[in-house]
Amino acid sequence: MRIMRKHIYADNAATTKLDIQAFEAMKPWMLEDYGNASQPYTFSRKPKEALKQARETIAECINAQPEEIYFTSGGTESDNWAIKGIAFSNYSHRATITSAFEHHAVLHSCEAIERLGCPVAYMWPDKNGVVTPEKLEAYITDQTLLVSVMFANNELGSIQPIQDLCRIAHTHGALFHTDAVQAVGHTEVDVKQLDVDLLSASAHKFNGPKGIGFLYVRKGVTLLPYADGGAQEFGIRAGTENVASIVGMAAALKTNIETLQENQARVRSLEKALLVKMNAAGIPYVRNGGEHTLPGIISLSFDGKDGEAILHRMDLMGISISTGSACDSKNAKISHVLQALRMPESLAKGTIRISLGKDNTQEDVDEIVSSLRRIIL
Ligand code: PLP
Known about the structure:
Layout: E1 8-9, H1 20-26, H2 28-31, H3 45-61, E2 69-72, H4 75-89, E3 95-99, H5 104-115, E4 120-123, H6 133-139, E5 144-148, H7 162-171, E6 175-179, H8 191-194, E7 198-202, E8 213-217, H9 243-258, H10 260-280, E9 286-288, E10 297-301, H11 307-316, E11 319-320, H12 336-340, H13 345-348, E12 351-355, H14 362-376
Parallel strand pairs: 1-11, 3-4, 3-5, 5-6, 6-7
Antiparallel strand pairs: 2-8, 7-8, 9-10, 10-12
């Protein structure tokens, strides 16, 4: 008789499991206090108050002011809004600078503003997946309007020197946006310390619900409204507030921040154990993403192998991993991220991403390595 193994989820950079406390916190706002938060009557008082509290909680988690937090439908909307909102509220020939390995939410937004006449320049990361301050210095001019560089890359986990990049942008009179979708809830993110002007985040990456996120906009930054309509979100992002999801997002972020140190230590030790076991098993691999990566994001290249075939064989063994960005998996064999690293094709094609989260265990790591051994060797 074939014994079915438990499913192992190792694709936490694609999405995460909803935190049970967040789920419980969401329920009353759908089933009991479901009033429209923007209505003036008593029945809407509680949802309005919940919205206010959620905004305060989220602001506190990233060291912002509550009125600097704008709720959106997720990371994609936050990125679109930041790029387009800045470009179109400052219609001019001043340029946006971004990197060639951003998420498509940023890259395609940049292509969209380019089509409407706003210039964009794309910086290439180094071979470790880092946009260096020197690189930005070479691109930036006093005509730069916005610099947008992600906090950490979603395929590689490589953390960018945001504080330094931000300082350079400000020295030249430019604004700075960071797509921190992979980082928020997984590492310390302090908008005041970083000194960023705009920052994108998405709840489902930090154990919150899907379809909700936020954009931090520093007080004083002018941003064109993303959606025209009602007066929600301080009049610049119309649409009835998704109170349940917003409350769930705040609860999930608060839990993750309160347990950040222990989660980081746990996930880092699983990550180390995985690599030690791979070495012990004699599996030849190259780890991508350099020295400073987010805990748990492990990009591995197997020379001469086919990453997609590895993914499907792992899937048959009950293990979910990725070949790169979830949004990319139907597209090119080699993702734009790996292309930006200028990696040899035989390595790029044989690349997978394992992303461990706080729910993974040592047994999961053992199973992942033993499955990889069977596939690779
Ligand atoms: N930015 C990055 C770095 C991401 O990894 C993702 C999702 O994979 C997004 C943006 C898009 O976020 P969402 O799925 O909330 O639209």
